[in-house]
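Data card: per-record layout.
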Amino acid sequence: MKAYKKNSKHAKLLPEAKRVYCLNGATKKVVEKLKNITITATADNAAALAQKMVNNYSIFNVSFFCGNIKRNELLQRLRENLITVKETVVYETILTPKKIENNYDAILFFSPSAVKSFFSVNELVGKIIFFCIGQTTANELKGFTQNQIIITAHKPSQKAVATAAIKYFKK
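The structure for this 171-residue chain is written out next.
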C-alpha cells in the first residue's frame, strides 16, 4: 500500500474507490491512515478476503493492487465468480537469499516469498522448528520440509510470530 501511495499514476485511483477490501496487519494500518477511505471488510488471508467479496453480491469489477509475486487464491476465486479483476502491480518483490552457516533451533517466516528465498540457497540440517505468520506461508513451507511448522497467529503480525517462538522455547 505504501508503494501504491508513492506511485503518482495510481495514487489518484484510490480516493474514487467505493469500497475497499484489504488484508489485516500492515496493509490495513496503512489504508486506515488514508483520508476519505472507509474499509468495507478485512481478512487475515487472500482466500478469506475473496470469500467476503464474493459474498457481497453487488461486486462486479475490482481493482487489485499487488506486487509482482503473489499467490492466486484471491484472483482465482473472484474470477470463478465472474468478478472482473483489473490487476495493477505497484511494487516488486526481490528475493534476497542468504546462506546460513549456523545450526538453529527455529526459523521464523513472514511470507511465502521469504520461504522461497531461504530454500533457494539453504538445506535443512536437523529438526529445526518453523514458525509462520499465517497459513499461506505455512502452505509454501510444506513444499520444502516435513519438519514441525507452527502457525503463530489468527491475527498475523511479526510480533505474534516472535511471541509464539519465545513461548514455545520457554516451555
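Known properties of this structure: Residues 158-170 form the longest helix (13 residues). The CA atoms of residues 108 and 162 lie 8 Å apart.

See the next section for split statistics.
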